[in-house]
Amino acid sequence: MNPEMVAYESLRIGDMRFAYHREGHGGTPIVLLHGWPQTSWAWRRVTPLLSQVCDVVTPDLPGFGYSSKPEGGFDKKTIARRLRDFVQALGLSRIALVGHDLGGHVAYAYAAQWPREVSHLVFIESSLPSFGQEEAMDVSKGGSWHFGFNMAGDISEELVRGREYLFVDHFMRRETVGLFDPNSVSTADIEHYARALARPGALRSSFSYYRTLPVDRGDNRTWGQTPLSMPVLAVGAAWGYGAASAQNIRRVASDVQDVLVDHCGHYPAEERPSEVATAIRDFLAKPDSAPAA
Amino acid sequence: MTGDQTMPDYIRGNMMSTMLEGFRHLRVRVGDVNIHAVIGGEGPPLALLHGFPQTWWEWRRIMPRLAETNTVVAVDLRGAGHSDCPQGGYDKVTMAADVHGVMQALEFERYAVCGHDIGAMVALALACTCRSAVTRLAVLDASQPGWSGWEANCTKPALWHFAFHQKRDLPERLLFGREYDYVSTFISDRAFDHGAHTIEDMHVFASAFAQPGKTRSGLEWYRAFPADHRNAQPWTREKLSIPVLALGGEYNYGSTIVAMLEEFASNVSGGSIAGCGHWLPEERPVETADAVLKFLVG
């Protein structure tokens, strides 16, 4: 069997079908949220390294992969609520939560709304609206063009439709905030993401994660007034956002440690899976600071 | 039934659509670039410079009227319409030199210039670099590199296309084969009066944008913005003294364009054209022509 083969399970919650992979029943429950424009496939190399000690759950976020493409509700507050329903339906109440890229936005929204239900937060190559992401969006200061493009409206879907491979390949292999080693992710892997993005509703959903950023900014400002108290690990990549992930999350959390992965671009879970898994395992070994009450 | 009759009217009509009665088409060589110009009328010379994603055809509704009292020269900018699209030279100073070269070749020593959108940037660059040639400058609904608000303006969500067009190589791939969708959406999204552009007009602009090299060169106008912004800085310290008319569409730049141009010129008039988006000569041709004609004789 291909060691990278991933089996999916499905769970239906209300109008939403969640597709997910689960392995290593019995250990610390840990939920890993992929980024944009990816799917839970992004965790294929990290999952086997964590499943020895953890109950690993990797869902396709609403609108991505094999999960449903809802009509609306792409603000991260709503996405996090859907995700919590999913986590509870799995019979889990308190989890370690890992988010990469836009998955980090969702993970923050989850941890901020239900801090007692998140034992540890891992924030990988991500940013936070209202707390530093705006700098990555400011094209006059070298920010990326794709924020405006993704938020532009129907024309974004129209231009990318049928060209999903070109689009994903561009992001993963671009010169800045791409992979450090362009071959660390195979053409077949990129095709996997491109096919997922080609499913009906997938482009609309994926761009909707950007179109709701103004809503997220408001929610984050509200939540940010109360710093997260659970331990937070920020993982940055030298060829990705660098120190920015840690800088962003420090503005909303009081107990943050960080690690910077060398020779690595924006996709540490695929480029440096053993470093990422080791960092997470060491971090989870930290005493759980669960509130007594 | 012949093959021609099965063709939709707007395609059959296309063959004739980019011709205006009383105007003739020229190809003028400026340096190593051929520039397409459409000329007609009598009186003092007036150069018309179109914007993105258009061609000289954006002036079709006001050219006959302007030509009653002016010799109108509507050019296709470097990279658009029937002009050449070389690898480089898309900074607005070089594009302005193309226009000046056309006017010189036509033996117009001194002339007025009116530009819209990217053409307004070229028009300002022309007025600032050929100060003895340009008698009057009219700019229609555009931001200007060198303006104090330029950088902040570039980050506005409505101007997402600035960053998209500046991205190298990828936009060409995404736009290929979808020129009509892009051009028609681009125009509609920025229009207030949706009666201003016929489907035929959209096809004229989209087919021009789809010509080999023309998509790339239209995007190059934006990729030159950092150079344009640098080049324009000194102009704000040596303001134009010629009369300047600045008009904005009520639903786009509006009267804010007057203060913008006052950073480059000491004698600015103008304001907002009511009931109008970004496409002044097409959405409000009568009001636009009135304002420009009044300015030219004022």
Describe the protein's architecture and organization.
The complex is a heterodimer of chains A (293) and B (298). Chain A has a single domain, classed as Rossmann fold. In chain A, 39% of the residues lie in helices and 17% in strands. Chain A is built from 13 helices and 8 strands. An 8-stranded mixed beta sheet of chain A has the order 1-2-4-3-5-6-7-8, sandwiched between helices. In chain A, helix 2 packs across helix 3. The longest helix of chain A has 14 residues. Chain A is globular, with a radius of gyration of 17 Å. The termini of chain A are far apart. The model of chain A has no long low-confidence stretch (mean pLDDT 94). Chain B is an alpha/beta fold. Chain B has one domain: Rossmann fold (3-Layer(aba) Sandwich). Chain B is built from 16 helices and 8 strands. The longest helix of chain B is centred in the N-terminal third of the chain and has 14 residues. The N terminus of chain B is likely disordered. Chains A and B meet through helix 5, helix 6 and helix 7 of A and helix 7, helix 8, helix 9 and helix 10 of B.
